[in-house]
Amino acid sequence: MNLEVRQTKDGSTTLFVPELNEHYHSVHGALQESLHVFVKMGLQAALERLARVRVLEVGFGTGLNALLTLQHTLTSGAEVHYDTLEKYPLTPEVVAQLQFDKFILNPELLDFFAPLHAAPWEQPVAITPHFTLRKLETDLESFRPAPESYDLVYFDAFAPEKQPHLWTDAIFQKMYDCLAPGGTLVTYCAKGSFKRSLKAAGFTVEALPGPPGKREMTRGVKPL
Fold it and tell me: By C-alpha distance, which of 149, 154, 135 is closest to 83?
C-alpha cells in the first residue's frame, strides 16, 4: 500500500492512502481527533466506572491512539490492556517519517513511541507497569474475540464509503458480543446507517459533539 505523510491543521501528521483517497486521521487535526474521540469520550468515560480497562482498537495505524492512551495512564494511574488490530503494519521507514516529536509536547511520552511500533506481534508486551500492548496482525473480519473480553472499543476503521465491509450489521454484532455489559464503542463516524447497525446489535446509541471539523461523533453503550 502506497502511503504519503501529510500534516493536519493542528500541526500533527497523518497518512494519506492514494488508492482509497483517504487519510488515516482527520485533516482538521489528527491529535485533536484522537484525544477527543478516543481518550476523552472513550477512555475517560470508561475510567469513571472502572480502574482497569480492556481496550480493543480497530486500526493501529500510526500508533497515535495507543500513545495517547498510554499517556493517560501515566497521569491517572489507571491500568489499560490494549489489543489492537492491524492488517497492514507500517514499515520502519514510514514510522520514521511521522515526526511525532514535532507535535507531541511531552518528552517522556516520546520515549514510548518506538517501543509501541517495535513490540512483537501476537503477544502481550508490558510497555509500562500500567499499559500492556498486544498487536494482532489480522483484519476485523477474521478476528474472533472471546465474548465479553473488552470494556471499550476504539472503532477507527476507514470511513464507511471507503471500506463498507467493515461497517456491517455482522461486524457490529461482533463488537457488541465482545464487550462486557456497560462496555462502549466510540468512533468519529455519525452516519445514520451506521447508527442503525449499532441499534440492531443491541447498543444504546449516543450522539456526542465531534472533534474539530465534525459536528457529531458516536458512542454505543452495551446495557448493563
Answer: 135
